[in-house]
Amino acid sequence: MGRRVRDCGRRAGLGGLLALAAIFSALSPAKAQRAEPCIGASWEVTGPLANQGLMLRIAVETALEKINAAGGVLGRPLRLVVYDDVGEPARAVDNARRIGERDNCVVMFGGARTPNAIALREPLEEMGMPWIGPISAGTTVIEHQNGRNQWMFRVSMKDRWVTGYLVDQAKQRSASGRIAFVYEGTAWGQGALPDVEAAARRAGVTLAGRETFNIGDQDMSAQMIRLRDAGVDTIILWAVDRESANMVRSMDRIGWKPKIVSAWGVTTAFARAIGPLADGIMVAGTFNWNGQLSPEAQAAFDAMKAKYPDRIRSTADLEQPSAMANAWDAVHIIVEALKLAGAYDRTKLRDAMFRVNYTGLVADYRPAFIRDNQERMDAVLAEHYKLQAFHNGMLLPIEATPYGMRN
Amino acid sequence: MEAIIQYLLTGLSVGSVYAMVGLGFYVMWSAAKAVNFNFGDIFMLGAVLAVVLLDLGAPLLLAAPAAVLAAAMVAAAIERGFVRPFNREANAIGWMLTTIAVGTMLESATTALFSSNPRALPSPLAEHPIRLGGAGIYPQELLLPVALVAVAFGLEFFYRRTLTGRAMRAVAYNRVAAGLVGIDADRITLLAFFIAGLLGALAGLLIGPVIQASSTMGAVIGLKGFLVAIIAGIANARGVLVCGVLYGVAEKFIEGYLSTAARDAIGFTLMVLLLLLFPQGLFGKAEFKKV
Predict the structure, then answer these.
(1) Pairing of strands A209-213, A36-43
(2) What is the rounded average pLDDT of the residues A212-235?
(3) Over the stretch A183-195, which tens digit does the pLDDT of each residue have?
(4) The pTM is what?
(5) Which of A349, A345, A346, A367 is nearest to A358 (CA)?
(6) Cis link prior to A367 (omega < 30° from 0)?
(7) pLDDT tens string A317-355
(8) Residue A213 pairs with which residues in a beta bridge?
(9) Which residue from B41, B42, B93 is spatially nearest to B70, judged by alpha carbons?
(10) Do A253 and B219 touch (CB under 8 A)?
């Protein structure tokens, strides 16, 4: 009797252990990472940068249509799920949770804002979900302070490299060597200041002025008068369309036209807003759709035009030319990585990202990313950056404009 | 000297915008003892609707007044739907929440329908600045102080010389007594919001060609218009006008000689200090109630 009771107890204990093991197995990361064939995106569908979200959507949806028409990935169609973050980091985190836990997507796609991307570090780490960013260029999005970025990849520019590039370009074009930095008073702008100063030191340039402005400022005459009086002939600009337009208006008021070399916050919407005043303003980017296009780029543009005929009629309608090319390449890099991973599994996908070699629109990514080197979890390198300039309302490769040479 | 001229010119222009928006707050407050807290959105609609009408092929001379009129009708609709039902009781504050909510909805809808990008509002007066040595101003910007003076005289005439204007003053003085003598206070309040809408939308329309039309263009300006109305004493139209222009000019001198980044911090600190010294506003009078 006593033996039977002991056996029953052993059996019950064993059963309990097995049940617990089954529960833990179900909850284990390996199990959770068997994911669905979807790319979950969080960007602005509404809010001040909603147009950037729309441009990303056009690029990603078109790329996926092409991929799915060719049979999808691993025999299954890959779909896009988009959530609106309204430009707010807290919403971006909520969206990441939805994408990772409810939709169980295999990968997440990011939007424009650096603070939103930075806010995703912990949730992505907790969920073990790869993220790929086609815009947000903040250095620390990829280069985490603890040096342990494992899940965040980028196919975009990096501020630390962009600032060096802009300083070099400004130095080449400044006749007097008197270069100033004008930036918006946000985390994005403030964050660029030390990088610009460091890049200027490396280039042997002493900044002749540093001016800031607030979001929504209509008039920047005071800043422009100070820079003009300081003898500045070239400005490195770190701003987005509306404030950039107001700055150029302020220059026009006082009859001052220095050279401007800008980060890529300035888009074709800027030129549409201020017309001929945009001519000659140079912008760093990763891709230009108005130059001589490769057959792949031409096919990508034709596909976007066919899919969105009301929105995309000409290359001038690609309001985020670099970001759209980045997004196109990012989707294809994900597809290549999934093929290498052989399964819709987040960890396998993350590991496969480091084995991707792919020729995209922006660059020949060989390899796209390097493991254990978080600086190279950026696929687009400084050598891939391209200078463009506004001419007759179009953003053209600098060599196709009259501003290609020192002038 | 060039810098001083520049700060005076642009300060006068920006200050005129603040004053016109501030006068809108004055008109609303006088009639209803309530305001549309997101009045900056009516300012925005003045410019955005003009761009939309131009897109539809309307000539500028038609698009401009039609946009102002349409925006003013939106302002009146906000009074009817989002202020009046929540301002029935004495000391009611529900209208604060509802006007902020409807303003947020308006801004989101405009972003979705109009685009989040700034759009040009073409005007021949915003193409070439008038230069004074190293300073300059667009003729379009000079329209703003001219319009402000015209609006101020127009309001003065309306309040003092017209029956409706006098009725509005009566409602402002004592809503109940005005009702007892046959004035439809609700209708007058609706009209007040409509007139305020005309002022706000006109300011947006006039500055739009210089700063571009966008769904978010009214957020900061609406706040500053409210600020100058409070500093002046919201029940004093002349005070609002003077404070608006002075605040605009002061901002430019702060930007020029103190700090661009700290401009708003200095401005808002100034407001708090002035309110501590003059609780009724610089031009306001203490209200005495007989009990």
Answers:
(1) unpaired
(2) 92
(3) 998 878 888 899 9
(4) 0.83
(5) A367
(6) yes
(7) 898 899 999 999 999 999 999 999 999 999 999 999 999
(8) A184
(9) B42
(10) no
pLDDT tens-digit readout, A290-302: 978 999 999 999 9
Distance, in angstroms, between B120 CA and closest chain A CA? 4
Q: Do A242 and B108 count as a contact with CB atoms less than 8 A apart?
A: no
Cα separation, B174 vs A11, in Å, equals 87
| Angle formed by the axes of helices B185-211 and A241-254, nearest 10° | 70
Closest CA to A278 of A173, A394, A167: A394
Give contacts of A222 with chain B, Cβ < 8 Å. Answer: 3, 6-7, 252, 255-256, 260
The pLDDT of residue B289 is 56
B2-122+139-277 homologous superfamily: ABC transporter involved in vitamin B12 uptake, BtuC (1.10.3470.10)
Tokens 């260029």, located at residue = A137
Q: Do B219 and A211 touch (CB under 8 A)?
A: no
Q: Which of B125, B211, B215, B254 to mutate to test the interface with A (most CBs of A within 10 A)?
A: B211
Chain A residues lying within 8 Å of B119, measured CB to CB? 272-273
CATH C-level class of A160-263: alpha beta
Phi and psi torsions of A106, nearest 5°: -80, -25
Within 294-323 of A, beta carbons closer than 8 Å to B belong to 319
Would you call B120 and A272 a contact, using CB atoms and an 8 Å cutoff? yes
CATH placement of domain A33-157+293-381: 3.40.50.2300
Both tokens of A216, joined, read 């929504």
Break chain B into its structural domains and give their ranges: 2-122+139-277
Contact A222 B7 (CB under 8 A): yes
Output the pLDDT for position A31.
44
CA–CA min distance B118, chain A (Å):
6
Residues in chain A with CB shorter than 8 Å from the CB of B13 are: 219
- The token duo for A5 is 């009771």
